[in-house]
Amino acid sequence: MTEHEPRYFAAAEHLSDAKLAGFSSKDLCQVRVAYSAYGLHLFGKVRIPSLPEDGPAYIHFRAFKGGPEGKCSLHSIRMGCL
Length: 82
What we know:
Blueprint (H helix, E strand, L loop, with lengths): L16 H4 L7 E9 L2 E9 L10 E8 L6 E9 L2
């Protein structure tokens, strides 16, 4: 997380790793897929059940896979409330 601004994760800093990652596929609220000349982009919004519903309670992420033989990688991650 040192690569991201600390304020992105302030709402979840008190959670243990297990609570932060304690979501399942039912907590995936939105997903979009986009293709570009570089490969496949996956955008997602995941609800963190351990956080209150009225506050920042979601992780927004972007994953990327370059070409059919490319390796999948997490491109970015951010906490949000929308």
